[in-house]
Amino acid sequence: MTKKLRVALLAPFEEPVPPKKYGGTELIVYNLAEELTKLGHEVTLLASGDSKSSAKLKACAPKAIRVLPEAISWPIRQGLNYAGLSKALMLINKNHFDILHNHFGWQMLLFKDLISCPMVTTLHGTLEEPTENYMHNRFRNEAFISISNTQRKHGPKLNYVATVYNGIQVERFKFNDKPKDYFAFLGRIHPHKGPEHAIRIAKKAGIKLIMAAKIDPVDAEYYEKNVKPLIDGKQIQFIGEIDHAGKVELLKNAKALLSPIQWDEPFGLTNIESLACGTPVITIGRGSLSEIIIDGEQGYLCKSLTEIAKAIPKVDKISRLKCRQYVEKTFSAKQMAERYVDAYKKVLGL
């Protein structure tokens, strides 16, 4: 019989768990909390107070920090996050957890010597960014979990105990074998995600593109200058940030997801969400994408933007049913939870 573990999951406080709209890390924490609970483990979720979960919720911030008007000030936003971490430390040390699973980032590693139980940290972002790289390497001997093998490329000296792919509740994504006549772009507006390239590719290929994306304040100028002038509201439509139902509707009816990334993607949750709806992915074969997508089977891994445009007419050759089955077999939330339990046991020496 599997030993029941007392697990504390520390989520970011920027969004609720699960997020109402965009929020990849918060969604993964939610999926993990639900599945660990189903597996019989005692799970405590340390998150914002407006979170909802089958796990025991302990509020570290009254509500998601991103929605607070005062959070428009970056120093205040940072202060609110550290106030939340202070509350989390108190809660961790008041309870007797077997393990703390840190999804917050390097900031929690600063307090490792004040934590009363073993800790493992999942890396959700890129270590290519200088601050992330430096701060994580300061704590390189702590236990880390990567979300793809290629994510390790920019932090090869960290103490990795496992790679655990992100998992989704596949049943929440509706399969559709008869898409409409448009392509989709989904994620956030940022140069790394290549939204302006998706528009130019769509115009070159003569296809309709519907874009759904979050715009962070830091990226507002980039959107106004580089993306918005290319949107005509007809061939290229921008529908803003969408909730889960809107995401499923967008993805299941698209012929393919266009993802002309310009960085080494650590994972790319939208790709498996798209495949779960049966919708292939046309992307650049950088970062984790070569692990997530088999070229010619779930979409196309291209070497350039020109190749993406050339791949568009071939998208009908991809079996939408096989895309769905692939996600069911490889990227379910249950599989993710089981792999995390194996990682916890490794850290605990069980």
Break the fold down into its secondary structure elements and pairings:
Layout (H helix, E strand, L loop, with lengths): L5 E5 L13 H15 L3 E7 L7 E6 L12 H21 L4 E4 L3 H4 L9 E5 L6 H9 L4 E4 L12 E5 L19 E6 L6 H11 L3 E6 L5 H8 L8 E3 L5 H9 L4 E3 L9 H8 L4 E4 L4 H4 L6 E4 L2 H7 L8 H11 L2 H16 L2
Parallel strand pairs: 1-2, 1-4, 2-3, 4-5, 5-6, 6-7, 8-9, 9-10, 11-12, 12-13
Helix pairs in contact: 1-12, 5-10, 8-11
Descriptors:
7-stranded parallel β-sheet, 2 domains, 3-stranded parallel β-sheet, 350 residues, alpha/beta, Rossmann fold
Written account of the structure:
The protein is built from twelve helices and 13 strands. The protein is of the alpha/beta class. α1 packs across α12 (333-348), α5 crosses α10 (305-311) and α8 (269-276) crosses α11.
